[in-house]
Amino acid sequence: MPDWTYQPLRGLAAAVLGRRRSQRTALRLLASIGSRPAGARLIARGFGHRHPPERLAGEIAGVPVTVRLGISVPPSLARDAVHAMHPLGAGVVEVAPVSAADVETVREAAADRSIPLVVRTSDPEAEAALKPHVDGFTDGEDPRIVQVTDPSVIAAAAAIEEPDAVVLARPGVLVAAGPGWFARVTEAATPTVPAPPLRDVGRDPRRWPAWWWALLVGLGMTGAGLGAAAITLGPVLLWYDRDYLGMTLHELHAANHHLVHFLQHDRITMAGTMVAIGALYTGLAVGGIRRGWPWAREVYLLSGAIGFPTLLYFLATGFVEPLHAATAIVLFPMFVAAVRRTPHAPRWRLAPEGPEPERRRALVGQLLLIVTGAGLFVGGAVISVVGLTGVFVPTDLTFLGTSTQTLEAVSPRLVPFVAHDRAGFGGALMASAVAIVLLSAWGWRRGEAWVFWSLSAAAAAGFLPAVVVHGAIHYLDFIHLAPVYVGIAMTGTGLLLARAYLCARASARPRD
Question: How far apart are the C-alpha atoms of 163 and 155, rounded to whole Å?
Fold first, then answer.
């Protein structure tokens, strides 16, 4: 589970259950999720380092491990650790100390393991009984095994730099630092390389790095959103809109004096969401993909995989907007070029750990941003469904002072025309929401100011036009606008709490 949920639960568990029981509770919760395939994938994507460098591989007690980083637990926690640690990014579980009385417990833990399991024991009888069931045995006097009780990422990363060293954390480290500790240590120990000089790229588009294409998509979305806003604030309808409706702007206004304003309100909110997506994609390109963060490419891919297919909403509405289609046709090949290439070599530099109160405030801010993004996704899904079915919600018809049947009588194409705008906005909102949730969940690191500014720009572009246009046309129904007000409050509070953490001066900078 994310650190922002783990930390409050850890504090509550420690207060109620005591330190030892709180460790067991935390590990069991992670184990119950990690023991299921979907849960393991969720944990791995949220916390596990999916791409540890080869230089961090090695062995412990003669047992090969993909990363020389693991956990040392007592026998009572062995089964839970075996289920929970592999998705988190650990390379090995050590059970210690083990006596003859613990043999059956360790044997059960080892039965269905997906991670190397080693044992430290001074009991020959226990070693003989467990030899067929575990991967190896460690020596408590081995200087290559570093036992860690301090949750400091920098110290653990420095220890694992030694070619033969194996770093084993005690359970209290995860309780104090959260389950993302393994990934953070791996990132801190990952070697980075300088960015290649731009002159080496040349003018051949086939040699352009992936982040250039991702940046072009972000800038293209921003430009398209600004263009849509300019059209909406100017002529409102273009020639193909008038041809499809068979009506002019004046005829629409004469049919219902709120109708033009309603169209503007739909299109301005859509334009703001497009600019928000552009801001998120630009940030992911420059701050994430360019610097080799594997998760940045995944955020970009998953968001676009939702956004681009919404063009097919026209199959249900019957209206194909030429500019919308042209924008998607131009940007989609760039999107593919950005995600199909091999991720860049790591170029990040991690900021040093800051004050604990700063980190805790940032965790609360992270929670608020993720909850807000999840709410936006649900809202986008609802808007898409409404746009493709009933089109209007009750507050819309109250504002218009009419009914759907009356609007259909004005023009049989009027409702499908509104449906296109409404459904398209829902699809764009879902795409931006996915980027917000995943960027907040995966990119929350001290000193990553680009995360703060990307989310801030997206929030400003998404929320402010919606508030302004509703005020300008006097569509001020509180129930209708309540989600916007809640989103603004949660996003603003979350960003304020996290600003010092994300914008710390000692930021990770790429070497240009």
Answer: 15
Helical residues (DSSP H) of 340-446, grouped into ranges: 356-388, 394-400, 404-410, 414-442
Closest CA to 253 of 410, 372, 36, 453: 410
Cα(448)–Cα(504) distance, integer angstroms: 8
Q: Are the C-beta atoms of residues 63 and 57 closer than 8 Å to each other?
A: no
Amino acid at 285: A
What is the Cα–Cα distance from 441 to 296, expressed in whole angstroms?
A: 11
Which of 502, 498, 511 lies closest to 349 in space, CA to CA?
A: 511
So where are the chain's domains?
Answer: 3-189, 205-502
Phi, psi of 364, rounded to the nearest 5 degrees: -65, -45
Point out which residues pair with 117 in neighbouring strands. 93
Exposure string over 34-51, b if 16+ CB within 10 A, otherwise e: bbeeebbebbbebbbbee
Helix (H) or strand (E) holding 169, with range, is: strand 166-169
Write out pLDDT tens, residues 436-473: 999 998 889 899 999 999 999 999 999 999 999 999 99
Instruction: Centre a 10 Å sphere on the Cβ of residue 218 and count the other Cβ atoms it contains.
Output: 26
- The mean-pLDDT minimum among 83-87, 103-107, 164-168, 480-484 falls in 83-87
- The runs of H, that is alpha helices, within 35-77 are 37-46
- Helices 356-388 and 478-502 pack at an angle, to 10 degrees, of 150
> For residue 333, what are the contacts with CB-CB under 8 A and spacing of at least 6?
none
For residue 75, count other CB atoms closer than 10 A to its CB.
20
Q: Evaluate whether 60 touches 138 at the Cβ level (below 8 Å).
A: yes
**What residue has token string 């941003």?**
369
Q: Given this model, what pLDDT does residue 287 score?
A: 93
CA dist 475 and 396 (Å) reads 9
Give me the torsion for CA of 122, 172, 438, 210, rounded to 10°: -50
What does the pLDDT read at residue 49? 45
pTM of the model: 0.82
Task: Indicate if the pLDDT at residue 303 is higher than 70.
Answer: yes
Which CATH fold topology does 3-189 show?
TIM Barrel (3.20.20)
Contacts for 135 with CB less than 8 Å, ≥ 6 apart: 61, 63, 116, 117, 118
Distance separating alpha carbons of residues 438 and 376, to the nearest angstrom: 13
Q: What is the pLDDT of residues 200-236, one digit of tens each?
A: 566 667 678 889 999 999 999 999 999 999 999 999 9
CA 359, 363, 369, 370: dihedral to nearest 10 degrees?
A: 140
At which residue do the structure tokens 């030899």 appear? 131
Which residues on adjacent β-strands are paired with residue 397?
none
Count CB atoms within 10 A of the CB of residue 193. Answer: 12
| Other beta carbons within 10 Å of 394 | 11
**Six-digit token pair at 502?**
């994300």
Cα 81 from chain centroid (whole Å): 26
